[in-house]
Amino acid sequence: PQEQNAKVNNNKKSIINKNKYIGDDAALIYNRLLVSKDIISENIHFLPSTPLKYVIHKLFTCNISDIASMGAVSKYVLLGLALKDKSYLKNIIPLIEEECNFYNVELAGGDTASSERNFFSLTVLGEKGRNIIYRSGAEKGDIIFISRPLGRCRISLEKELNQNSCNIDKYYHYSVNAEDKLGIYLGSIDGITSMTDISDGLGVDLNNIALSSNKKAVIEYNRLDLSYLDEYGIDNFDYFISSGEEFALVFTVKNYLASKIQKDILDYLNINIIPVGRIEDGSGIYLEKDGYLQKIDVAGYEHFNKNGSI
What we know:
Elements: H1 2-17, E1 27-29, E2 33-41, H2 52-68, E3 73-83, H3 88-103, E4 106-114, E5 119-127, E6 143-146, H4 152-160, H5 172-175, H6 180-186, E7 192-197, H7 202-213, E8 216-220, H8 236-242, E9 249-253, H9 255-269, E10 274-280, E11 284-289, E12 292-295
Parallel strand pairs: 3-4, 8-11
Antiparallel strand pairs: 1-2, 2-5, 3-5, 6-9, 6-10, 7-9, 8-10, 11-12
Helix pairs in contact: 2-3, 2-6
């Protein structure tokens, strides 16, 4: 019996390892269905004092962002709730309805249970667009874009943790939205070579593209306007590169199409995507400033620990 069990376990391991899509933002099944799942937990992803509306919005955003980052459209969600207080349920249901309406998805089922801490789980089912966009397609000469300015989510998180006194809403980092419309659009056109969402910080997530594509990513300092961070008295570039759970998109575009795609997105979606660098042969992620290349130490988002601090 022991030998038989060992064989079964080995088979399970080999089946898991055969799934080549593990590690991208969502799994593609039957070349049509996209599946993403995230769990958020009290004292890890949010504090007990965080209003439920922000927690539920973050739950939807982080999952729908994964579908969007592969150029797909979210369609259905499955919800799992483990609650320390059953009275929360009556407050959560309207919030779920609000998020389903906001992201245009349908609740297809789920389950609830009691727990010593609050846990929320969401599975999102999506449909592929014309093109599936992976992290692994970046090519030499591509232009790197982000979908919106970065940095404020880290400042807001630190405000919630009483680590700064900046003039920012301490719940701002819960209220950012997934770039679902932009993701769908990028999946419908040619010229987008790779993409992921910024959940762990631009440094970490752009490095994932570089690693998956076997290329080097260069952030060009002279392209950046970080003046929107001046008021907070921080190291602007450090926060720009490391702010996590922004749920913006970072993607690469063929050089000869970059200007046209940038203009079209502004015209059709009123989104001003931001060029921040380029892809080269090599490996790693670098900052180009004053004519010099400096390797960037990848650092990104860290969750709360059990004491509610970082």
